Amino acid sequence: MTICCGRSKTCLLIFLVLGYLCGQSRGQYVDDPSAIQNVTYTYDNNVLSGSMMIKSYPNNMNAYIYYETYDGVWNMTGTTITVHWQWENSENTYGNWSFSGAISPYGISKFYVYLVLVESGVTYTDDNNGQYYVVANGAPRSTANCTGYDVVRTSVSNGITSLDLALNGNGCALYSPDVKYLTVSITPYSADLVRIKITDTANKRWQLPANVVSEGTPSKSIKTKSYSVSYTNSPFTFKVSRPSGEVLFDTNVSGLPSLIYEDEYLEISSILPENANIYGLGDMADSFRRSPDTTLQTLWNIDQATTRKNNAYGSHPVYYELRDGMVHGVFLRNSNGMDIALVPGQITYRVIGGVLDFYVFTGPTPAAALDQYTSIIGKPAFVPLWTLGFHQCRYGGTWVSTQGIKDTVDSLQQAGLYLDTVWADINYMNAYDDFTLGSSFWDWNAYVSTLHKENLHHVPIVDPGIPIVNGYRPYQDGLSSDIFLKWPNGTLFFGQVWPGITVWADWFHPQSGNWWTKQIMKFHQIDSFDGLWIDMNEASNFVTPTGYEPAYKINNNGAWGITGLNTRTLSTNLTHYSGVTEYNVHNLFGHYEAIHTHNALSALNPGKRTFVLSRSSFAGTGSVSQKWNGDNSATWDDLYLSIPQIMSNQLFGIPMVGSDICGFNGETTEELCNRWAQLGAFYPFSRHHHATGNADSFFFLWESVTQSALKAYTIRYTVLPYLYGLMQQASQTGNAVVQPLWWHNPSDTNAYGIDTQFTLGNGLLVTPVLTEGATSVTGYFPDGIWYDWYTGSAESTSAGYKTLDANLTHINVHVKGGVILPAQYPSKTTYNTTQNPYFLIAALDNNGKSSGSLYVDDGVSVNSNYSQLSFEVSGSTLTIAVSRNEFHIAPKLSSVQVWGYTSISPPNAIYLNGRRVNGAQVTLSQQVLNITGLNVDLNNKSVLHWK
Ligand SMILES: *[C@@H]1O[C@H](CO)[C@@H](O)[C@H](O)[C@H]1NC(C)=O
Ligand SMILES: *[C@@H]1O[C@H](CO)[C@@H](O)[C@H](O)[C@H]1NC(C)=O
Ligand SMILES: *[C@@H]1O[C@H](CO)[C@@H](O)[C@H](O)[C@H]1NC(C)=O
Ligand SMILES: *[C@@H]1O[C@H](CO)[C@@H](O)[C@H](O)[C@H]1NC(C)=O
Ligand SMILES: *[C@@H]1O[C@H](CO)[C@@H](O)[C@H](O)[C@H]1NC(C)=O
Predict the structure, then answer these.
(1) Which of 336, 383, 800, 935 could bridge across to 353 with cysteines, CB 3.0–4.6 Å?
(2) Which residues form the Glycosyl hydrolase family 31 C-terminal domain (predicted)?
């Protein structure tokens, strides 16, 4: 069918080409704004119905009416109702047409109606007669009376500004009763961070306790602030600006309510620049840079295999905006369900409870912004070193007995593949009951001991649903401590997960932590695990209980209230300890479980770092736990999405994150698994996992995948000291381990939208193949010199795109000029690698210089003694400075590579601290100088010189 003209530019182009057809023959009909009149409609339970008057035309034509759902956020094609009728005569008379149809299930907040005329197979689309209608969340609601609040009293004390607000007029009760009086406090937290909190003056509302979600601590004395906060009095709006006057957040948005503050509905918006560069808001599976025009991010944790545009397992109400090379961020510290919409020029929050508690941080560098955000929610936990190795997991398949798992491990090792950690999914349990071993795992713990002897580790899964089985200790103990979740009338709440009918712990109960710790400690006696994997903690429930649904329907699972809040989770009616309602804390279930699990592991191994892999998360979860992106699928799109997901989690303060390699759900292919092995080798958390019901997808099953995995993981294990150093830095500063390319130069607008490549730290650029059948890949190189990992030759010397060969077993990796990567000769486990000699890769910048650092400790202790070294190459000298040497570094530095070495001939002699090193050998090829045969003690400062 030919579309003559529509609203898009493409259509306009087509219109020009077909102009004679569209314009001449049907022009008189297609530009008539009065063609549709008097539309009435109702929208209820997913059905839009109503009537309208449509002008008729003389010719015997078919006509259609399309209802396109559109609210500036959504533009879902395929959600149209078609009304089709045979034309009747009488030109310019109006016929009354009724319509009714399911508009399912996406984002109806406006629909669009226009005419399409069809004659002799040619379609004339005319939207000049089209009109938008608002049907947000059921019957349309007028915001005419939502006139906001007036400032009635102001006071300033200790630098904190307090405002009393009173509702202007009678309010609008859009979705629930208006709160009459509000209190605003504006608290400077640091030179770069300010908190603006709006609470109910008279009545208690749900507010996040600081022991569950940290609220940061204001500095005592703040000298110069990099922001100013101002407000308007009537109606009250507030604005945060940079000293330059640049406005970062401004709730005075023309045409929108200034502030709606109701019992179960809060709405506030801020101005954004057109085409704003917004990152963050999650969990989600979407591009890293969020569409500034059509993003709707719903936050309501759900066990939903990650699909594009849905809410997912975790909630992170924080965004970062990159504007003119500077980054700032906004965090809404609120755990309630919400929709956050980005539409052209604005961001709107629609929240169904709690308080408005904003933190605005001013960056301006990306690293500073992350440091500021993690100063509120907590710095990322420092992971044990072994967790940086390769992890093997499998659900079902042959992994239903000790022998089945052992066979896989043996095959991996025989293939020469890298392996650090052996996981166990729910199959190891007896009847899927937590903390038990099934009969085919009777010899499991002996096997775990064997793994430990080989310097391998083990992590089993634990689910929060506790089966109601008489005599089952976790259940009995929980009953005696009275820690399970209940209905308001005191009856236990039952749901259903893997083991059958279950109850769930109330993590707010003061005894729940002890109960959980006790179960974990007992379990450790029969399964000497090294970390725990907490799944199903959204919380997932196989049945949907009845429970309260507020009037404003958030877009849970992309379905605007059709999928209500109770869908496949705990009832919103449940009450936690001291009356806290599940309605308010749903999004905290996994986060709080992670806190308790971290505490339990700390109690089990005092003084040691913990490893907790959680599926669900909230702001701050990264300070106690790590994360994977849940149940992805074996598709090329999921391969790509893993990159924006991992980059977004860096912004959420969860640097240790990964996606299931080769895809969890569905059958993978050799080629997909091959490309995934290559990319996954550079995930901070690097785990292969696959769902039951699908054929095995272990690397060793295919020759090509084995080769790719060997090649890519050899890089990973080689740069282990570098990766570990990045993790250590992240735990101090919050800085991203996986960095988008604009991290290197926030003014480089070319990089703003790139999410098919990333760097590890600032030194290692990864350009994976994400397309089926490709044997090359086009990647962007930020400015500076980038050296090919494999040859040490300069690949790119100025910013721009390059197409690179990428045969099936090759992943492109480049090293940034100016960076020194600390490396070790790789063995097949991280532990064994840490015992090997060190070497350095010094990739020189345009000035012939490079620098780097090395952090070494025992790899497991919370407050380990550590050593910290810095390296600098300048001219023909490598300087090794030791700023701390508490931890004895046994392996020696055995070689140094200098990339971008421009002298024609190699040096004749190598000197260490002025003394000639006799055993040293030197080769020079293609500007790669390789100095070997060194034996440098890294516990002391030294100077290596070549001439
Ligand atoms: C909506 O989709 C149509 C058809 O794909 C496109 O022409 C139009 O530009 C889209 N509108 C927005 C706001 O994205
Ligand atoms: C639509 O409603 C208006 C106001 O009631 C009326 O004047 C007009 O005639 C109606 N249009 C049609 C086509 O019936
Ligand atoms: C606005 O408030 C006035 C006075 O209370 C009331 O009569 C009117 O119906 C309200 N309008 C809407 C759209 O709610
Ligand atoms: C308590 O409330 C729940 C949910 O409404 C209900 O199923 C249960 O029967 C009630 N228990 C008692 C003892 O009334
Ligand atoms: C949940 O709470 C609402 C409102 O408080 C109540 O109307 C409803 O009956 C409750 N449902 C259950 C199952 O208890």
Answers:
(1) 336
(2) 734-821
